Amino acid sequence: MTETSVPVAEGWPAPTPGRPVTGVVRVPGSKSLTNRYLVLAALADGPSRLRAPLHSRDSALMVAALRSLGAEITEVSGSGPFGPDLLVEPIPAGAAGNTNVDCGLAGTVMRFVPPLAALRTGTTAFDGDPHARQRPMGATVEALRGLGIEVDDGGRGALPFSVTGRGGVPGGRVEIDAGASSQFVSALLLAAARFADGLHLVHTGETVPSLDHIAMTVQVLRECGVAVDDSVPNEWRVAPGPVRAFDVDIEPDLSNAGPFLAAAVATGGSVSIPGWPEQTTQVGDKWREILPQMGATAELADGVLTVTGSGAVRGGTFADTSELAPTVAALCALADTPSVLTGIAHLRGHETDRLAALRTEINGLGGNVTETADGLAISPAPLHGGVFGTYADHRMATAGAILGLSVPGVVVEDIAATSKTMPEFAQLWTGLVAGTEPTAAQED
Ligand SMILES: O=C(O)C1=C[C@@H](OP(=O)(O)O)[C@@H](O)[C@H](O)C1
Ligand SMILES: C=C(OP(=O)(O)O)C(=O)O
């Protein structure tokens, strides 16, 4: 008799603590800040240092991309618990030669690196994960062409494509429709000081999403001595000039702090995140408004944000939550009143179609989620266990973990998807939920 193989249920059983979750969690560096500073360091007028940067798949892809364009990036020991600091020698003047860039599933790599490839001499071929080929890239392709750069995308407006640079970009006025991603704007702004005439970028479509991320781009450019005029809505002017080398501390990733704070809200516990900046352009600072709307308290004192849940989760209307939306949606699915998430139509072009993924997976656990033109409507419904699909999306994986806090039997299909921006997620989550002694990474 031959043995037949029985499919084994795989996945990560999300812990259900059955009591309030209480603890302190230090989270790794911001993806958006790390990858912006890496790009600026590659363009800078001397060597730069990133202290406490993120070390994850998205940052590793950015490091590899910039190395392939000629930057020298070395790891040196730092003081943070999440890995070494990074020293960056910029891409040398006159860098030339054909090369390849693997974008993985990283929006910051596929959008921010092509303008740097345009500044070199030679052809750079860009590709990525299967789903990366579905993500919108047309505005980058058209903008580079508008700047006189040769781009071969086979007419797809998507990966794979190649950029052929001739050692410089003239710059000037360019119009784009950045309705599908703020990263189209950020990408051009980050490189623009190195264009001969700088850049006058005009957005011609309807609403640009994720405006906080553009504010972050403008802020980091100004820190590096680049003159940016963003006084006219939907227009940005960047003066040509040097990008000043820097030595910077990377803030913790406040978006990735979200699931841990959500654990306090979902269970009526209390979670503290040290290293919370007093001033920041990170969209994750909005947790201080969003979570109190759900009935929690949020207190920022001496650089520590403490969120305390009330024991019940209240729904509400949440606008323009950008990359926070999957975490917000998971909490709304646990709420006792209905919720509406608006201003997030562009999430259909993220790591996966997040609106469809959240609707499908929350409803698969018994939820009541419908898609609207620009977001989600979520009504209270009794949830049950089951497999929560992750679509290679880190924020779907963390959304499944949040649901599992209150719903026994949730199995997150691929918890390793969190390695995109937080490889330590499962370890930190398990430690927090189990109420173990703080690990080195959790200590103050
Ligand atoms: O510039 C950035 O670092 C990001 C911009 C946003 O992109 P979209 O404008 O496409 O939402 C955000 O969702 C993404 O996670 C990171
Ligand atoms: C949309 C996201 O990522 P990316 O930078 O790949 O666009 C995200 O992290 O939620």
UniProtKB/TrEMBL annotation:
<feature type="binding site">
    <location>
        <position position="181"/>
    </location>
    <ligand>
        <name>3-phosphoshikimate</name>
    </ligand>
</feature>
<feature type="binding site">
    <location>
        <position position="210"/>
    </location>
    <ligand>
        <name>3-phosphoshikimate</name>
    </ligand>
</feature>
<feature type="binding site">
    <location>
        <position position="395"/>
    </location>
    <ligand>
        <name>phosphoenolpyruvate</name>
    </ligand>
</feature>
<feature type="binding site">
    <location>
        <position position="182"/>
    </location>
    <ligand>
        <name>3-phosphoshikimate</name>
    </ligand>
</feature>
<comment type="pathway">
    <text>Metabolic intermediate biosynthesis; chorismate biosynthesis; chorismate from D-erythrose 4-phosphate and phosphoenolpyruvate: step 6/7.</text>
</comment>
<keyword id="KW-0057">Aromatic amino acid biosynthesis</keyword>
<dbReference type="Pfam" id="PF00275">
    <property type="entry name" value="EPSP_synthase"/>
</dbReference>
<dbReference type="InterPro" id="IPR023193">
    <property type="entry name" value="EPSP_synthase_CS"/>
</dbReference>
<comment type="function">
    <text>Catalyzes the transfer of the enolpyruvyl moiety of phosphoenolpyruvate (PEP) to the 5-hydroxyl of shikimate-3-phosphate (S3P) to produce enolpyruvyl shikimate-3-phosphate and inorganic phosphate.</text>
</comment>
<feature type="binding site">
    <location>
        <position position="183"/>
    </location>
    <ligand>
        <name>phosphoenolpyruvate</name>
    </ligand>
</feature>
<keyword id="KW-0808">Transferase</keyword>
<feature type="binding site">
    <location>
        <position position="354"/>
    </location>
    <ligand>
        <name>phosphoenolpyruvate</name>
    </ligand>
</feature>
<dbReference type="GO" id="GO:0003866">
    <property type="term" value="F:3-phosphoshikimate 1-carboxyvinyltransferase activity"/>
</dbReference>
<keyword id="KW-0963">Cytoplasm</keyword>
<feature type="binding site">
    <location>
        <position position="31"/>
    </location>
    <ligand>
        <name>3-phosphoshikimate</name>
    </ligand>
</feature>
<feature type="binding site">
    <location>
        <position position="350"/>
    </location>
    <ligand>
        <name>3-phosphoshikimate</name>
    </ligand>
</feature>
<dbReference type="InterPro" id="IPR006264">
    <property type="entry name" value="EPSP_synthase"/>
</dbReference>
<feature type="active site" description="Proton acceptor">
    <location>
        <position position="323"/>
    </location>
</feature>
<protein>
    <recommendedName>
        <fullName>3-phosphoshikimate 1-carboxyvinyltransferase</fullName>
        <ecNumber>2.5.1.19</ecNumber>
    </recommendedName>
</protein>
<comment type="similarity">
    <text>Belongs to the EPSP synthase family.</text>
</comment>
<feature type="domain" description="Enolpyruvate transferase">
    <location>
        <begin position="16"/>
        <end position="427"/>
    </location>
</feature>
<dbReference type="InterPro" id="IPR001986">
    <property type="entry name" value="Enolpyruvate_Tfrase_dom"/>
</dbReference>
<feature type="binding site">
    <location>
        <position position="135"/>
    </location>
    <ligand>
        <name>phosphoenolpyruvate</name>
    </ligand>
</feature>
<feature type="binding site">
    <location>
        <position position="183"/>
    </location>
    <ligand>
        <name>3-phosphoshikimate</name>
    </ligand>
</feature>
<dbReference type="InterPro" id="IPR013792">
    <property type="entry name" value="RNA3'P_cycl/enolpyr_Trfase_a/b"/>
</dbReference>
<feature type="binding site">
    <location>
        <position position="31"/>
    </location>
    <ligand>
        <name>phosphoenolpyruvate</name>
    </ligand>
</feature>
<keyword id="KW-0028">Amino-acid biosynthesis</keyword>
<feature type="binding site">
    <location>
        <position position="323"/>
    </location>
    <ligand>
        <name>3-phosphoshikimate</name>
    </ligand>
</feature>
<dbReference type="InterPro" id="IPR036968">
    <property type="entry name" value="Enolpyruvate_Tfrase_sf"/>
</dbReference>
<feature type="binding site">
    <location>
        <position position="36"/>
    </location>
    <ligand>
        <name>3-phosphoshikimate</name>
    </ligand>
</feature>
<feature type="binding site">
    <location>
        <position position="32"/>
    </location>
    <ligand>
        <name>3-phosphoshikimate</name>
    </ligand>
</feature>
<comment type="subunit">
    <text>Monomer.</text>
</comment>
<feature type="binding site">
    <location>
        <position position="107"/>
    </location>
    <ligand>
        <name>phosphoenolpyruvate</name>
    </ligand>
</feature>
<feature type="binding site">
    <location>
        <position position="420"/>
    </location>
    <ligand>
        <name>phosphoenolpyruvate</name>
    </ligand>
</feature>
